[in-house]
């Protein structure tokens, strides 16, 4: 007897969803629904429906420019990429600062800690997850956040195209009471905004000023 609620068609749907994830992983960030459909020989309507469900459940993420998709953070979690011990929840004041700057810049804003273990994400923007978390973990020195750490906090530091064509990130140092580097605040956005951040840089600097007494 089958499990309650498990219908005959569901195992096939699960297989199709896994196939979509595998196709997205092979193609890399920016793959479109049409490309996935063609690669799998799957009807477009079925592909679009599965992609919509996978985005809703955060296994896929739509890129900020709406041109395609990338693997979401849940895939990285399943792969053991985020295997580091869980950190304590962020104080409410820190979460408030992050919410304010994210609302102001309308792009991905991430916060990471620097310690003896290296760079550790402590708050990834839920609306704009990291585009290629596996690659970021494999080569942290290629990211703006990693370069900021390597250069001792001489920032801002930016990179464009290291992980995803047409996208980049800009990292600002967050310092402690003695001027030591304790964290980094990163803007993740299309390349044009990273190269010429404009008002976004103003909002990021204000956020850093508010974060330093909270994190230092």
From TrEMBL:
Pfam families per UniProt: HTH_IclR
Organism per entry: Curtobacterium citreum
The UniProt record lists the keyword Nucleus: no
PANTHER family the UniProt entry points to: HELIX-TURN-HELIX TRANSCRIPTIONAL REGULATOR, ICLR FAMILY (PTHR30136), HTH-TYPE TRANSCRIPTIONAL REPRESSOR ALLR (PTHR30136:SF24)
Protein name: Helix-turn-helix domain-containing protein
Keywords: Transcription, Transcription regulation
SMART domains, per the entry: HTH_ICLR
SUPFAM superfamilies recorded: GAF domain-like (SSF55781), Winged helix' DNA-binding domain (SSF46785)
Entry keyword annotation includes Transcription: yes
Domain HTH iclR-type: 11-73
Superkingdom as given in the UniProt entry: Bacteria
